[in-house]
Write a structure and sequence with these properties.
heterodimer; A: alpha+beta; about 35% strand; B: mainly alpha; MetI-like fold; 2 domains; two-stranded parallel sheet; 23 helices; binds adenosine-5'-triphosphate; binds magnesium ion
Chain lengths: ~375, ~575
């Protein structure tokens, strides 16, 4: 039985459809990242799970219990979840201790138990020394920890986080990501984490749901999304992916015979015969000796990144504008390069139907 | 589950019940009583003609006279309010001068001082025994000239002048500096800039302020009661009062018609005002920088403005205070006969002490209940808006918009008969109900405004951890709006403690208020005692302000009405 199950959920605000036909199943203990560009409906989906919004259609189940459906609606008060808000939403009239303790008081926990639990949670997030401060006396990172501690104190089955790192600087973000991973492992709770930053998602999530314009484009492990994107949008969104328009002339077992720039390549993919996208990452492109390689291109410019030269080139004759690859040495602007495609993944272009096949990646069901 | 109209789609049942409870409360306290006025006014006449009562009352000579007086006196007072308000606002707003804050405070003072105290002060100032004018040889001989239509218009004009002043100051503070600078660079002389650039921009605000002053004048009871009744200049509010006093509830029908007439005039002015403000609002396209006065006021202007302000805000109160130190009515004031006899007398008088006690607990109770209504209302309005709540929003405003006399009459009509065996007519409860209806907006508005700034996520965060509605209201929401709640509650205390309009019609023996006490002492001819009670009540008012000031140090933000500029 899946832990969290969203069945054909839609949500509209008045005329505007914000979510359409969302289906998703998640095993217990997963760390799901909801990833997508701004305005695609991530926050709305998270608030639906929390019970802060009511779906216009569809149903939502948690551990076999229907939380929202055509005739049911469990209020957020009664769902027993934890949530960390983007603005943190700390209660300014209470101290750090008070913020963390409030939920325990609501549950009627005894004073001594409460004290022990608060101390334990504050120690977990490293805030023991600041228990008596008010929220306005804390730094952004400290507030973030209080918000986290507040949601951990009740030991919920599931914790929802809405862009919890958006207001932090890059360095702090890295250490908080590590913290999230640690807490996820330590508590065993399911985490659902909203972000529009794919690096963040790749860094922490066991599962990623890529959203676009109110739909889920694809759900899968980070590796699945990286290696076998289902749509061009996912391919481009994950790890600076690139897509080239190609033609699949035939399928050859698991491989697609792919026509690119007058040459035929055998590449793995899900596309049937017809127009297709070849999905590439920087790592898939290498330099070939002159006269060899699959694409000819001219260097546009370079930046030095992570010890290598990230090189942007304009390919010739293949209908794509810019490709990027990492080189070990600097190259002058305007140099002609020969590029070899070492690997890639071929998907159907608009209208084309993907070949129903093997991999679990083609369904939106994700098994642990 | 209750239907969605009672709250937003994710609202729990607690929220929905709360909306229903608030709706019933407003229905009972505001809508139903005011509705009685209409039902009564539209009754058939004695002979059964439809709308006969209305026809009879409207054609009566007394009605015509009161209507004419109301309009004449109100228009006269508006002329004074606008003239004074414009002159003062332009001088204070456009010229640089010393002690501007003190000046502004004095200009706003007539708004804080209750009507009956204002009227009494002017009576003492212009009496033949005037402690201020007589030593100067300026006291009028014979009859006091303030007992006249002109006198009523003057005192009401000064009392409502701050409404115009505030409207213009607000408009001036939004005047883009570059409009004036552009004119100066074009070498346009100052008087011309004022006439052709600044005044046209201010015109809508002047009109709006004037209409507000008109509504206030039409509904004013304290001034025409103290000045107009002796002078035999009846206006609609005092005619209603005299009819009810003379004939008792049998006059209710006629009086209801008068009340409708009064309401129509007041509401028409307010509607016109909101129409004008929408139509005439001038889209400003200047740099964001607001105009700042840099021209120092010439000496003569400073002397004039201080003289005017002393005349309208200080001299009358001085006359009142000096009168309260006289040993007996009719004695002329001099340094040798200053006495505390009046204070000894009133402080030894059980009825006076009871009036102070009554006003204190009535206004305190009213403030407390209004807070208990306003906080949940503001919470729902900010976090769970719905159609029923929007309806409540319209309804709560009604008893504040219509003249107070109409609200008092509404309470009489609604609660004259016992309801389910309980009669509250002739008890303090009817005064409390009237206060609750009339003064609720004073705390509701600021709290609702503060609630709009409350981050909804704070409430949602509390829901997620399982906190129920009452807990969220009490422990998350209330602390967030505490400052404006306290500010509104103090405003209610200050207003209700000194009101006369409602209690003049609703008081009963044992349930007198301070206003009623001042009014009856003056009516009995004991003007020195009336002066002493007025001075004491003004001191009490200042004491409450001071206490609030002390209290506000422990509150976040600018809690008090007078701290927001
Ligand atoms: N309460 C609401 N009423 C009307 N429209 C709404 C409401 N909440 C969200 N929307 C709309 O729904 C769409 C999705 O909003 P949502 O906040 O879920 O996006 P998001 O993916 O979280 O974006 P971001 O990354 O910018 O936070 C937006 O177009 C937004 O304008
Ligand atoms: Mg969002």
């Amino acid at each position: 039985m899946p832990h969290l199950s969203l069945r054909n959920i839609s949500k509209s605000f008045g005329e505007q459809d914000v979510l359409t036909g969302i289906g998703l199943e998640l095993p217990a203990g997963a760390f799901l990242a909801l990833l997508g560009p701004s305005g695609c409906g991530k926050t709305t989906l998270l608030r639906l799970i929390a019970g802060l919004e009511r779906p216009s259609q569809g149903s939502l189940w948690l551990d076999g219990r229907e939380l929202a459906g055509p005739s049911t609606f469990v209020l957020p008060e009664a769902r027993g979840l934890g949530m960390v808000f983007q603005s943190y939403a700390l209660w300014p009239s209470m101290t750090v201790q008070g913020n963390v303790e409030f939920g325990l008081k609501v549950q009627g926990m005894s004073r001594s138990e409460r004290k022990a639990r608060v101390a334990e949670v504050l120690a977990t997030v490293g805030l023991d020394a600041l228990a008596d401060r008010r929220p306005h006396e804390l730094s952004g990172g400290q507030r973030q920890r209080v918000a986290l501690a507040r949601s951990l104190a009740l030991r919920p089955r599931m914790i929802l986080l809405d862009e919890p790192l958006a207001n932090l600087d890059a360095h702090l973000r890295q250490s908080m990501l590590a913290e999230f991973r640690r807490l996820h492992a330590a508590t065993g709770a399911t985490f659902v984490f909203v972000t529009h930053d794919q690096d963040e998602a790749m860094a922490v999530a066991s599962h990623i749901a890529v959203m676009s314009q109110g739909r889920i484009e694809q759900v899968g492990t980070p590796e699945t999304l990286y290696r076998r994107p289902k749509t061009a949008m996912v391919a481009r969104f994950i790890s600076h992916g690139m897509t080239l328009p190609v033609e699949v002339t035939a399928r050859d077992g698991d491989l697609c015979r792919t026509l690119l720039n007058g040459q035929v390549l055998g590449l793995p993919g899900s596309a049937a015969e017809g127009p297709a996208w070849l999905c590439l990452h920087r790592e898939d492109l290498t330099i070939a000796p002159a006269g060899q390689g699959h694409i000819r291109a001219e260097v546009l410019g370079q930046n030095f990144r992570n010890g290598r030269y990230l090189t942007h080139v304009t390919p010739q004759g293949i209908g794509a504008d810019v490709l990027s690859l990492a080189l070990d040495h600097p190259v002058a602007q305007g140099t002609a390069l020969h590029i070899r495609i070492a690997s890639g993944w071929v998907i159907a272009r608009d209208g084309g139907t993907p070949v129903a096949s093997q991999g679990a990646y083609l369904t939106e069901r994700v098994d642990a | 589950m209750l239907p969605r109209m009672f709250g937003g789609s994710d609202a729990g049942n607690g929220e929905r019940w709360l909306v229903i409870a608030l709706f019933l409360y407003v229905l009972l306290v505001s809508v139903w009583p005011l509705g009685q006025v209409f039902l009564t006014a539209f009754q058939p006449g004695d002979d059964g003609r439809p709308l006969g009562l209305m026809a009879d009352t409207l054609t009566a000579r007394a009605t015509g006279r009161a209507l004419k007086n109301t309009l004449v006196v109100s228009l006269g007072s508006v002329a004074i309010s606008v003239g004074l308000g414009v002159a003062l606002a332009l001088t204070v707003g456009l010229l640089r001068m010393r002690a501007r804050a003190a000046l502004t405070f004095l200009i706003l003072m007539p708004l804080i001082i209750p009507s009956q105290t204002m009227a009494l002060s002017w009576i003492e100032l212009f009496g033949s025994n005037s402690p201020v004018l007589r030593p100067l040889g300026l006291a009028p001989q014979g009859a006091n000239p303030i007992y006249s239509s002109g006198g009523i218009a003057l005192v009401m004009g000064i009392e409502h002048m701050p409404l115009v002043f505030i409207a213009i100051r607000a408009a001036l503070s939004g005047l883009p500096a570059d409009l004036v600078e552009a004119a100066r660079i074009a070498a346009i002389p100052y008087p011309r800039i004022l006439r052709s650039i600044i005044l046209p921009i201010l015109a809508p605000s002047i009109l709006a302020g004037g209409l507000l002053a008109f509504t206030a004048a039409v509904g004013n009871f304290g001034v025409p009661a103290l000045l107009g009744i002796p002078a035999r200049v009846p206006v609609l509010t005092t005619l209603i009062y005299q009819r009810l006093n003379g004939f008792g509830p049998e006059a209710a029908g006629q009086v209801a018609v008068l009340a409708i007439l009064l309401t129509l005039i007041a509401v028409a002015a307010l509607l016109l005002r909101s129409l004008l403000t929408r139509q005439l609002r001038m889209p400003m396209s200047g740099s964001g920088r607001a105009f700042v006065a840099e021209h120092a006021a010439p000496g003569w202007a400073q002397v004039t403005i201080w003289a005017v302000v002393l005349m309208i805000a200080v001299l009358p109160l001085a006359a009142l205070t000096m009168t309260s130190f006289l040993p007996a009515v009719g004695v002329a004031f001099s340094a040798t006969n200053v006495s505390l006899a009046q204070y000894q007398a009133v402080l030894g008088n059980d009825a006076v002490l009871r009036a102070f006690a009554n006003s204190l607990w009535l206004s305190g109770l009213c403030a407390a209940i209004c807070v208990l209504v306003a906080v949940p209302y503001a919470y729902l309005a900010a976090h769970r808006p719905g159609p029923l709540l929007a309806a409540i929003d319209l309804m709560v405003e009604a008893p504040w918009v219509v003249p107070g006399t109409v609200v008092a009459l509404a309470m009489i009509l609604a609660f004259l008969q016992p309801i389910m065996g309980v009669s509250i007519y002739g008890t303090a409860a009817i005064i409390v109900l009237a206060y609750l209806a009339r003064f609720l907006p004073l705390v509701l508005r600021p709290v609702t405004a503060a609630a709009q700034l409350h981050d909804p996520a704070q409430d949602e965060a509390a829901r997620i951890i399982g906190a129920g509605l009452l807990r969220r209201l009490g422990q998350i929401f209330a602390p967030a709006v505490i400052a404006s709640t306290v500010g509104g509650a103090i405003l209610i205390m200050m207003t209700a403690m000194n009101e006369l309009t409602l209690s003049a019609l609703l008081w009963s023996t044992g349930n007198e208020t301070i206003g009623v006490m001042v009014f009856s002492l003056q009516y009995e001819g004991n003007s020195t005692a009336a002066a002493a009670v007025s001075v004491l009540s003004t001191l009490l008012l200042f004491a409450i302000c001071g206490l609030a000031q002390l209290l506000s140090r422990h509150l976040p933000g600018n809690a008090l009405p007078w701290q927001n500029g």
